[in-house]
Target: Bifunctional NAD(P)H-hydrate repair enzyme
Amino acid sequence: MSPAFNENSKQKAGAGAFALRIVTAREMQRTEQLAFTAGLDSYTAMERAGRAVADAILARWRRRPVLVLCGPGNNGGDGYIIAATLRAAGWPVSVTALAAPSSTDARRAATGWGSTALEPDDITWPEAGGLIVDALFGIGLTRRLDGVGANLVQRANQCGAPIVSVDIPSGVHADTGAMLGTAIAATLTVTFAWCKPGHVLLPGRTATGELVIADIGLPAAPLPDDLSPVWRNTPALWRHALPVPRVQDHKYSRGHLVAIGGGVMTGAVRLAVRAARRAGAGLATILAPAAAVSVYAQDQAGAIVRPRPETADVVAYLKDSRVSAVLIGSGLESGGETSDLLRHVLAARHATVVDGGGLDAWRDLDHHLIAERAGPVVLTPHEGEFARLCGNLGADLGPGLGKLQRAQAAARLFGAVIVLKGPDTVIAAPDGRAIVNGEAPAYLATAGSGDVLAGLIAGLLTQGMDAFAASAAAVWLHAEAARRFGPGLLAEDLPDLLPKVIAELSAAS
Ligand SMILES: NC(=O)C1=CN([C@@H]2O[C@H](COP(=O)(O)OP(=O)(O)OC[C@H]3O[C@@H](n4cnc5c(N)ncnc54)[C@H](O)[C@@H]3O)[C@@H](O)[C@H]2O)[C@@H](O)CC1
Ligand SMILES: Nc1ncnc2c1ncn2[C@@H]1O[C@H](COP(=O)(O)OP(=O)(O)O)[C@@H](O)[C@H]1O
Ligand SMILES: [K+]
Model:
């Protein structure tokens, strides 16, 4: 387990590994309350928040007309502090209040600003050379924006001036990244202590623009809601656990991956196995239908290819104690044979990655059988596969459930690591921990790149890496390889880009 997964470290909020934490609105509110009870003055926290936003503005823009949009809550309170701070720095500032401040701190901040707030109808909207500060709603937004609030958001987005959002763009749901009706499209967002799910999950991530995390004096570690912390995916979480061959290693001790090959869509397992071998698997065996053996064999001279005329051949092969992980589903049709194979693979109790056609087969399994198996399982659905896999899961847990919460719920339900893929891939562990990968380039949206990812996870698993860490590492390495290649990326390019990315990480640790 990485030291970065350790909640008891003495780091300050906003610094080092804790800057990697993602904290829900409820966790943030609980952490703030605890800090206030322990003696932090809530108005001091608000002043620090407002000053941090003003500092970020002063560091990026020269003096210009600013319009501050203030909401009724503490987000609006921050807005009044920002207005007063920029005015003190000599900037021309005007303020509009959506409604009168409703909290003691926000009222005090409004009194500190001291000047009248314009009615929304009386606003002169700044042009491109001006600036808007969005302090309408923060993590307290619970309902859809409508009426004057929605109108202010739309006018702000249309006026052409850059927008700086306080804490989170108004209209973005802090926990899910969903837009509640409409939302500010910010150039810069300054948030406090920790990043929120809405900053990294789409569409909130796009609305956030540049993200700055400011220290406002909260304690080092947030109070997790249910002991299931969430992180942003960075190598600090898992770099130390990347497998490195030891002097005494041989190919089997480095890890032997068995991949179940299909008869028609052979490309999937070929890509996956190449990625697994590039990630350091000592040996990879493809169990293929007899008619496809030559296709697999000609593709990679270093992979072992064995015919599997019957399911019984797979069962017998998996009994070999030198098998360390299995990949099933890539390039397999969903249905009869795949379901049968999956049952046998899980019964063999190796670490297993289930992708593609295997995911539909997983849905039909008896969950008791899964709970009793010994090996860790990683499921790698994209959103379409997730919807089929989980059926009513989302509905059962209520409408508006975010991608993070859906992945966490599925991981708990299935007792498996879930890699819910996409531009904002979520990796969730059965114990509720989760990691969000917010930095993948869209060049990955190309056929076969998911097969490479499944193989990469399997390649790390086969070398004994923990399933949650292996999945997070694979998602990051996959995205980094794609980022380096850039335009024109094919899935075929990805496996051979991995060694350099891994080598640089290992050298840096
Ligand atoms: N003292 C603290 O707790 C601190 C809070 N801070 C700021 O406070 C914010 C959270 O403050 P609040 O909890 O007051 O919440 P917000 O200011 O985000 O919004 C809550 C207010 O908006 C209203 N509201 C919610 N949804 C609405 C909708 N759709 N239409 C109209 N009104 C709606 C609520 O009734 C409430 O009055 C953070 O995002 C951060 O900016 C910072 O100042 C740091 C310190
Ligand atoms: N717009 C995007 N931005 C970043 N990554 C993406 C995007 N679209 C897809 N990906 C990534 O590309 C891969 C596609 O996997 P998948 O949908 O299974 O495709 P395939 O089945 O063709 O391999 C996943 O790792 C996914 O996270
Ligand atoms: K805001």
Observations:
- Residues 3-224 form a domain with the Rossmann fold fold (CATH 3.40.50.10260).
